[in-house]
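Running this now, will post back.
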Amino acid sequence: MTEKSEPKRRAVRSICPRCGAEPGQPCLGKRGQSRISYHKERLEQTAEADRVAELMNNLDIPEVDGFVVYGIHNPDTETFVYIGQTGRFRKRVRDHLRSGLKPHRFPPVKKWLYETLGSGRVPVFEVLQHCTSEQASLDAETALIRKLTAEGVVLLNNWKIHRE
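Update: finished.
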């Protein structure tokens, strides 16, 4: 069994480029106002990047070449909650996870991801179909959404074409 490597850390500046202060330390901006919020944002971005890297490492998302149609499963019910398409699967999963770490009211998939990750559960991402082009993946995505919706599956996709 292979051992998982440590999550990769995203390069974040360790000091303020304007004043030289360490993250979390106060400094003054050009007009003398406190810039502590700037340092706090850098600390939050680092923590967010670490959490996303940890989730990606635990999910063991495969490298996939080309366009794919993918689904996100509810980890409790194992039913699809979202169907999507992308040309860069790992990046798209990372984007979903990153958006799920922040509170959202809309779109529904971001809200669902936030609630799911916040409760300690992790969604399941699955490649459903490999496609030869972006147009083929868009067509396959739409066809699959229509099929699942006709079967009574409630999806969080919110494009008008998917609801027709």
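Residues 36-59 form the longest helix (24 residues). More later if anyone needs it.
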